[in-house]
Amino acid sequence: MTNLDAVEGLDALTRSLAQRTPEQLAALLTRHAEPLARRPAPTELRGLASALWSYETLHQLVLHLDHPRLQVLTAAARISQERARNAAAGPAAPAPGADYQSLMAHRLSFAHLASEPVPPEDVFAALGGTSPGRTRSVAETALHALYDDGLAAPTEDGAIVVPPRTPQLLAAHHPGPLLPDAPRPVPEDPAGPATPAAAVPPTSPHDESRAAAATLAATLDRLLASLATQPAALRKSGGLAVREIKRLAKAAGATEPHTRLLLDLALAADLIALTRTPSGITALPTGAYDDWLARPPGARLAPVLAAWSGLWDIPTHTPFGETPTALVRGHDRHAPALRHALLAALATVPHGAGAPLPPLPFTEPPEQETGSHSPWQDLLRAADWHRPLAVTHQPMAGERAAHTLHEAAYLGLTAHGTLTPLGHALLADPRSLDGPLTDLLPPLLEQAHFQADLTAVVPGRPAAALAALLTSAADRESEGHAVTWRFTPTSVRRALDTGHTADTLLEDLTRASATGPLPQPLGYLIRDTARAHGRMRVLPAACCIRSDDEALVKELAAHRALHDLGLRAIAPTVLVSARPPAATLDALRAAGYAPALESDTGTTTVERLPTHRATAPVPARDHRAPLALAHRLLGVPAPPHEAPKSGGA
User: Fold this and answer.
1) Helix, strand, or coil here: 366?
2) Average pLDDT of the chain?
3) Distance between CA atoms of 387 and 395, rounded to whole angstroms?
4) What's the confidence (pLDDT) of residue 149?
5) What is the pLDDT of residue 244?
6) Quick one: DSSP state of residue 351?
7) 542-577 core/surface letters (b: 16 or more CB in 10 A; e: else)
8) If we measure between CA atoms, which residue out of 275, 267, 255, 582 comes closest to residue 407?
9) Per the CB 3.0–4.6 Å rule, which of 185, 358, 367, 539 could disulfide with 379?
């Protein structure tokens, strides 16, 4: 009988899904993309209904329910369970001291898993919404939201059907009375009749967000550049070693907790990949990093901030007794809901009324007088309304919330105890951050100001090409609102070593100059360094060929078939080849000779064929895939321009 009720519930949900338009179904698939991605893609509406009501998906979805929706779902589930028990009572409760099998048989019996349709009026009555009013309207709105998200389904006669596992999932949740509106994190009038002028912060949240975003963009740029130059090796037990985090933190100019945060965000944004090598697992930038460098600053930060909103971890929070690390896939499914709850609570705080962030390391604020709450407790209470299962119901609630808020401030999402415009944009839609970030971060600069003291100053964020040119010929000296490079004989010699001549370097720098011709001291430095460059030459050679037979050496040097090797004699019995040993051996053997490979110790080496592994490309995310899948599930032909490029969803 239990299975029959479950089937009828899925039938009701399937009928509800079938009544939607492709756009409505695509919106549901997009909202639930993260939990549904952990299961095989459905091929029919019945499969989608089963996926939505599976325990794992259901567990993930209820974490993101606000107080009214959770209250309605909890009330419907408990009434449904009571109706199921009355309709067909399960086995009697085991006697005290019963064995484990009897206890589990009772726990998994029909009365604990069954669900019966519930009239909406019974749910509204349980929540105190019998008569029209604010409570009733909020409960009705919450019920329709549950229908929209597939967490409940209406039957043909208008009753409510909830997933059969809901009573188990919410057994530990004590709903209490329904609160139609979220508690305010600050009092209505925190400063009394008049707010002292000194209490108003000197800068606006917009200004603080602009400064934080600029610092974040520069820090992330340096961090990924350092990782591209020297990939980081992970420990055998997983995660970066402390010494690697210290190295990257020094290169990025950031603290170690912020470095761990940026590394995890870059990994979640597909800018970093973990690659297995013969020496172990290595972290290095992906091919998407090159495309990322070509974007303007706002477009660079957008995927990183979007990754923060959905990250299953709080990277800057390390529980007591654990070693801080980075680049470990998180398992904290409550973290995204906690972020949303805190940002939603701060969204209602006006400028000048916010409380300062709690200092780290976190200590619980002292208890207030009876009947009053501290600003910190008021904030957590308000956050609890937005995500009741993810804030104070979790262990170390205060520590987790404090670290989350410090991360939000570092990312430019909060300032002075309230949300910045960027924070409001992230809260509304993490996928639509390009516009707000473009307003915060000015365009990249293509030219620099060259000065007579052998420095070049870029009064803003330099473009990738300008930064690469200046870095190749000068040393970066300072960061901030303006970036400064200093030219020295050593730095100019570095540019000459990479293929520049004095003329080409002067030409490139002049083209990048915002003030016209270069200062004379810089021209003198470049030409003086170039005159001394190259007096001593190092001969490039990929490998050597040696033979005691001098006639054979002369024959090889003159052989037309070996012309591509670029053979040159440096001694009567030694030739240098411009090709690596493997290519040189192949060419010699193709010409009819029988060479042997020799190691650096002079012994003959046994050759083995090299093995090659192809790197699988990161699959592109097609924003049209949910709509295409919705058309297939509903059996509605998709317009030609909406058909995905591949057959997968």
Assistant:
1) coil
2) 84
3) 15
4) 95
5) 93
6) T
7) ebebeeeeeeebeebeebeebeebebeeeeeeebbb
8) 255
9) 185
The Cα–Cα gap between 62 and 84 comes to: 22
Residue 178: Cβ within 10 Å count: 22
What residue spans define the domains of the chain?
Answer: 7-170, 205-351+378-439, 449-532, 543-591
Residue type (1 letter), 480: G
For the chain, the farthest-separated pair of C-alpha atoms sits apart, in whole angstroms, at: 109
CA distances from 195 to 199, 235, 351, 419, 509 (A): 7, 54, 12, 20, 54
Residue 15 buriedness (CB in 10 A; 0-12 / 13-18 / 19+): middle
Whole-angstrom distance, CA of residue 379 vs CA of residue 138: 22
CA-CA distance, 79 to 58, in Å (whole number)? 19
d(CA 34, CA 259): 26
Does the pLDDT value for residue 94 go beyond 70? no
Closest CA to 68 of 145, 12, 7: 145
Q: Find residue 418's DSSP bridge partners.
A: 415
Strand partners, 118: 160
Q: Using CA atoms, how far apart are residues 35 and 435, in angstroms rounded to an integer?
A: 28
Residues 206-234: what's their mean pLDDT? 90
Burial class (CB in 10 A: 0-12, 13-18, 19+), 478: exposed
From 338, 393, 399, 392, select the one nearest 364 (Cα to Cα).
399
Q: Which residue has the higher pLDDT, 188 or 305?
A: 305
Note the residue count of the chain. Answer: 649
Using CB atoms within 10 A of its CB, is residue 366 exposed (0-12), middle (13-18) or buried (19+)? exposed
Peptide bond into 361 cis (omega under 30): yes
Residue 525's Cβ-count burial label (10 Å; 0-12, 13-18, 19+) is: middle
The pTM assigned to this predicted structure is 0.76
Q: Among 316-320, 455-459, 509-513, 583-587, where is mean pLDDT lowest?
A: 583-587
623 pLDDT more than 80:
no
* Percent of the chain with pLDDT strictly greater than 90: 44
Listed residue (24, 118, 134, 41) closest to 73, CA to CA = 118
Segment among 198-212, 511-525, 595-609 with least mean pLDDT? 595-609
Instruction: Please check the confidence at residue 195 and state whether its pLDDT lies above 80.
Output: no
Is 90 exceeded by the pLDDT of residue 610?
A: no
Residues 112/103, Cβ–Cβ less than 8 Å: no
Tokens representing residue 457 in the block: 């100053």
- What are the pLDDT digits (tens) for 131-150? 999 999 999 999 999 999 99
- Among residues 423, 264, 397, 261, the alpha carbon closest in space to that of 334 is found at 397
Evaluate the CA torsion angle 62, 65, 70, 72 in order and state its sign.
Answer: negative
What is the C-alpha separation between 144 and 613, in angstroms, rounded? 52
Q: Which of the residue ranges 7-11, 224-228, 533-537 has the most confident prediction, judged by mean pLDDT?
A: 224-228
Residues 6+ apart with CB under 8 A from 496: 502, 505, 529, 530, 533, 534
Edge to edge, the sheet with strand 543-546 lists: 543-546, 574-577, 568-571
Q: What is the CA radius of gyration of the chain?
A: 33
Q: Is 451 left (phi over 0), alpha (psi -120 to 50) or beta?
A: beta
* CA atoms in the 13 A half-sphere facing the CB of 625: 16
| Residue type present at position 531 | R
Q: Are strands 475-478 and 483-486 parallel, antiparallel or unpaired?
A: antiparallel
Question: Encoding tokens for residue 390?
Answer: 């993810």
Does the pLDDT at position 111 exceed 70?
A: no
* C-alpha–C-alpha distance, residues 258 and 233, integer Å: 19
Task: Give the separation between CA 540 and CA 577, rounded to whole angstroms.
Answer: 9
